[in-house]
Amino acid sequence: MTPINVMIVEDELITAEAIAILLRKLNYNPISIVSSGEEAISKIKDLNLDLILMDIILAGVMDGIETAKIINTNYNIPIVFITAYGDKKTLDRAKLSEPYGYIVKPITSEDDLFPTIELAIYNHQVRDKLRDGNKKFEKIKQLIQPNNNISPPQDKIFLEKSNYLENATEKIDPMLEIDVADEKINLVEWLKSFSNPERFLILEILKSQPSKLDDIQFYIGKSQSTSSHHIKKLEKTGFLKGWKKGKYIYYSLDKPKMKEFVYLWENWLKNLSS
């Protein structure tokens, strides 16, 4: 397994070295120790980092919270704060930089680090999947209505099912399975069906009118087997429907199903961030 590369931003060298020892015991790789926010920012671009452990009180002009805000704006690296200050005022200010965790000193054993770091890495991976999924979702919205104004479907049965999201608790498992047209779907895994850009090209082709398999193959410039493979993947999402007419097979978009999904996805994300 690829080791987790960690930067330690801590102005007390003895504390930083002690944390590095604990990280190595956990099979993490502390590849950089810096004492200021300025130094951390200057080194990040040259390092392949998976995580930053950031003290809040630092040497230099910027403290850890200000440094974290800059890093979040420019880099996709999870940050966990390490600090001797666990008061509400400090916590509330730290939240503004959207950290992935908060460890209060003294850090004396691996157990002080391991749970928070593991959860931070996991949550960061989930956010990345959601971010990638949301990009695909935006493309799907464009296929339905270019103006992005999606009206909720009027089907009574679907609206009853959507009430689950409207009444959801504040914390929703990012890997939650939900119902879309009577089918249990893991949203993140389901969106992997759109991982190949050629599949979006197929959806674009079918946006205006149904097309034969031969025509789809011609437009995307792929072999019949590759084209059929992409179509089968899209059929599994429910966005595509096919039928035989004479000796040809035609395909078209199932726009009601797509609208159903878009409405449910928007509500799911809204509840996830609330």
Distinct helical segment count: 11
How much helical structure, as a percent, in the residues?
40-55%
CATH architecture call of the largest domain: Orthogonal Bundle
The portion of residues forming beta strands comes to 15-25%
Largest sheet: 5 strands, parallel
Number of spatially distinct domains: 2
> What is the C-level CATH assignment of the largest domain?
Mainly Alpha
* End-to-end distance: 35 Å
CATH-assigned homologous superfamily of the largest domain: Winged helix-like DNA-binding domain superfamily/Winged helix DNA-binding domain
- Uncertain runs are 146-175
Radius of gyration: 24 Å
- Counting helices, strands and paired strands, the structural category is alpha/beta
**Shape summary:** elongated
Within the CATH hierarchy, at the fold level, what is the topology of the largest domain? Answer: Arc Repressor Mutant, subunit A
- Strand runs, count: 10
Strand order of the largest sheet: 2-1-3-4-5
Mean pLDDT: 77
Which SSEs are present, and which pair or pack?
Layout: E1 5-9, H1 13-25, E2 29-34, H2 37-44, E3 51-55, H3 64-74, E4 79-83, H4 88-95, E5 101-104, H5 114-144, H6 156-166, E6 177-180, E7 183-186, H7 187-191, H8 197-208, E8 211-212, H9 213-220, H10 224-237, E9 240-245, E10 248-253, H11 255-273
Parallel strand pairs: 1-2, 1-3, 3-4, 4-5
Antiparallel strand pairs: 6-7, 8-10, 9-10
Helix pairs in contact: 2-3, 5-8, 5-11, 6-11, 9-10
